[in-house]
Design goal:
Layout lengths: L7 E4 L6 H7 L4 E4 L4 H13 L9 H8 L5
Parallel strand pairs: 1-2
């Protein structure tokens, strides 16, 4: 799937409207998730551990997932 085929994304409420505006500039609809960030993380872990999803090979991303900072 190429980036040009993505029309909608769902994410947490990180940085207020900044994410929504950044996606909107590229014609992508951003919908805030009903589930809080910690819930998204808890739902994500089993999928990652069962290898049903793959991550890009990016050390910063891996570090953020392995040791999240909760504020």
């Amino acid at each position: 799937m190429g980036l040009d085929s993505i029309t909608d994304v769902t994410g947490d409420r990180y940085a207020g409207q900044w994410c929504a505006q950044a996606f909107q500039k590229r014609g992508i609809t951003y919908t805030p998730s009903e589930v809080p960030k910690f819930g998204l993380y808890l739902d994500f872990l089993p999928k990652l551990n069962s290898r049903t999803i793959r991550l890009v090979d990016n050390p910063r991303l891996v570090n953020q997932i392995a040791a999240p900072e909760w504020r």
